[in-house]
Design brief:
single chain, about 525 residues, alpha/beta, D-Maltodextrin-Binding Protein, domain 2, Rossmann fold, VWF_A, VWFA domain-containing protein, vWFA_dom_sf
Length: about 525
């Protein structure tokens, strides 16, 4: 057996006693070897066996062997593997333990939100995350961690209730989580405040989806600032520890595995789980369980379905929903290499009544500065402006070359503050877009999503530049499917020719987003960000 590390001690103790008491299957003595293996590592081994790749999981560890029985922390691993590998058909799959997924938060901050008396919903957390309240969020990489994935699914579901603003809410939440993400659970929890003073509480991690067992283990170490476990509603899919007998195991070993599973269905095992900070499959707990403040019993949602029951698992989770959430996460958080190109033609001086008569330029720049905060230091960004004859005979001017935000973030912020429209400038859109495409293609990066994001309030009206037919023909010649560049054009106001812009992106790939109300530029930027594909492998 390969078991998730947090449950392995309880399993080993129970199985050792069962074996010592003469445990057998059909009269045959059974020897059980139990190894502690992180679920993501075993998932990589199984994926490699079936010649598939799980997003974010990476290559298999060459020292790990395929077990007869796998006890991962969540059925979501089984669902992900089965979705990609039809030959992966484990049997049994019944849950042997449970740990609810909670929102972990430093106790002083939780108390400021009314904990433990006040119930908190995912919609409440989503609002805190996406409205610039300064809530520092984090997550263990959801492609590699089942609790992180469960939290991601819950936030995505909360965003879906936001009506017309759902895509923006989801993208803002994902970017906020991505900025504070960690590849390892230990790295994430180390970001929580290590002192109780106001400065430490303000600068440390404020909230992250973790398992209840994670919170119990963290608090058992008596940290300076304990964590509160917020049992956020609607209830996320819990970690459900399925007992999965691997496909191809011979009948004798299958019978032995089934006998072992029966041995784990006991009061003694339930109490051992409690000592490890885990619950029974029904969401109640045994002796030795140190319940977090406010912990309900039972908890964690309805009992999990087996992964072969009606195509659903982990509390009835739809595999398609799981796959969609992971794809969106990968697309939005994939390291990006982006050239932002901003229109500074004279029409950008027009006032916007909905923004207290600020100019279109001012509204757009405010949105750009807010958008810059969504990108972490793994991104590479550059900045151009364009009109007509902006730099000699060129319609564009480079303000910041494309470079890592880890070093050029101050340059980007400084350059945005210097931008002002050219009062008599027209819109040299075609010449600029062609030059931008060539510039991004010249230094195309294989490990990133390469894109151009153009902000404009008009259509091409440069009599001295190339025409649409020439632009489209040259873009077709330049386009290389092995080195894709996505062109996203954000149109502002009523002067935009949406058809003209869509003809461009039909050649390059990407999308056109137009709003008549310039104050909505931030919203359509988030929609555009969600459109980005995953980085090439």
């Amino acid at each position: 057996m390969a078991a998730s590390p947090e449950i392995a001690p309880a399993v080993r103790s129970t199985v050792d006693k069962w074996s010592g008491d003469g445990g057998s299957a059909g009269g045959t003595c059974v020897v059980v070897d139990i190894s502690e293996v992180n679920s993501v590592d075993m998932a990589a081994v199984i994926a490699a066996q079936h010649n598939v790749g799980l997003a974010g999981v990476g290559s298999a560890n060459g020292t790990l062997q395929l077990p007869d029985v796998w006890l991962p922390d969540s059925s979501t691993w089984l669902v992900r593997l089965k979705t990609l590998a039809p030959g992966f058909t484990p049997t049994d799959g019944g849950s042997v333990a449970r740990s609810p997924v909670v929102a972990a938060m430093p106790e002083p901050l939780a108390e400021s939100l009314g904990w433990p008396d006040k119930k908190v919903g995912w919609a409440d957390l989503l609002k805190q995350i996406t409205t610039g309240t300064g809530l520092r969020t984090g997550i263990v990489e959801p492609t590699r961690d089942a609790a992180g994935l469960s939290g991601l699914l819950s936030l995505a579901a909360a965003a879906a209730t936001a009506g017309g603003s759902a895509p923006q809410a989801q993208t803002a939440a994902l970017r906020s989580l991505a900025i504070g993400r960690s590849a390892l659970r230990d790295d994430l929890v180390a970001k929580f405040p290590q002192a109780s003073d106001a400065a430490s509480l303000a600068s440390g991690l404020n909230v992250a989806p973790l398992s209840e067992e994670d919170v119990i283990a963290y608090n058992a170490k008596k940290p300076p600032v304990p964590l509160a476990a917020l049992y956020v509603e609607p209830t996320p899919a819990p970690l459900d520890y399925p007992f999965a007998i691997m496909p191809g195991v011979d009948p004798a070993k299958t019978a032995a595995a089934e006998a072992v599973h029966e041995a784990l269905d006991s009061g003694a095992f339930r109490n051992l789980l409690g000592a490890q900070g885990l619950r029974s499959p029904d969401g109640t707990w045994g002796a030795g369980f140190v319940a977090p403040t406010g912990a309900p019993s039972p908890a964690g949602g309805p009992p999990s379905a087996t992964p072969n029951a009606g195509g659903k698992a982990a509390g009835g989770l739809d595999p398609a929903a799981l796959d969609r959430s992971l794809a969106t996460w990968t697309a939005v958080t994939a390291p990006g290499r982006m050239l932002a190109v901003m229109d500074v033609s004279g029409s950008m001086l027009e006032e916007v009544p909905e923004a207290d008569n600020a100019t279109r330029m001012a509204v757009t720049l405010a949105a750009a500065q807010a958008g810059l905060n969504l990108f972490d230091d793994s991104w590479a960004l550059g900045l151009w402006t364009f009109s007509t004859r902006l730099d000699g005979n060129k319609d564009w001017r480079q303000l910041v070359p494309i470079g890592p935000l880890s070093s050029n973030r101050p340059q980007m912020l400084g350059a945005l503050k210097t931008i002002s429209p050219k009062p008599d400038g027209d819109t040299g859109l075609y010449d600029t877009l062609l030059a931008a495409y060539k510039a991004v293609q010249d230094e195309w990066a294989a490990d990133r999503v390469n894109s151009i994001v153009m902000f404009t309030d008009g259509k091409n009206d440069d009599d001295n530049g190339i025409n649409e037919q020439t632009l489209l023909a040259q873009l077709k010649d330049l386009a290389d499917p092995r080195r894709p560049i996505q062109v996203i054009i954000l149109g502002i106001g009523s002067g935009v020719d949406e058809g003209q812009l869509k003809r461009i992106t039909s050649v390059t790939g990407g999308g056109v987003f137009v709003t008549k109300d310039p104050t909505k530029i931030g919203d359509i930027f988030l929609k555009a960000l969600a459109l980005r594909p995953a980085a090439p492998r």
